[in-house]
Specification:
It is a single chain. The protein is α/β, with parallel strands linked by helices. The chain has one domain: 3-Layer(aba) Sandwich (Oxidized Rhodanese, domain 1), CATH 3.40.250.10. The chain is built from 4 helices and 5 strands. It has a 5-stranded parallel sheet with strand order 1-5-4-2-3. Helix 2 links the parallel strand 2 and strand 3. The longest helix is centred in the C-terminal third of the chain and has 12 residues. The N and C termini lie far apart (44 Å). It comes from Lacticaseibacillus baoqingensis.
Length: 102
């Protein structure tokens, strides 16, 4: 075993369904300026550069999103290494078709 960590991913469509059912917490790992330009309602902004200091209130059903999915995957791996169950949102905000807030 080489220590590879497989991070589960979901689509933005599945994320929308889960958020509508109030299932889970969403972390947006983009920079604050990106987040302020438009984010999913209820998402907490924790930039990738600060993800190592972040501890979720409820470590279950944690979803991570960024612009395209690359930063969120890195954040998810970092959180997973700390024993936090996390799911990456594939495609990120570029794939999100739902409403955003500023």
């Amino acid at each position: 075993m080489f220590g590879f960590t497989r991070i589960p991913s979901i689509t933005t469509t599945t994320l929308a369904q889960r958020l509508q059912q109030h299932l889970g917490q969403l972390i947006d790992v983009r920079e604050p300026t990106e987040y302020r330009a438009g984010h999913i309602a209820g998402a907490k902004n924790v930039p990738l550069s600060r993800i190592d200091q972040y501890t979720p209130k409820n470590p279950s059903d944690l979803y991570v999103i960024c612009r395209s999915g690359a930063r969120s995957k890195r954040a998810a791996k970092a959180l997973s290494k700390r024993g936090i169950a996390v799911t990456n949102v594939a495609g990120g905000m570029l794939a999100w078709t739902g409403r955003t807030v500023r």
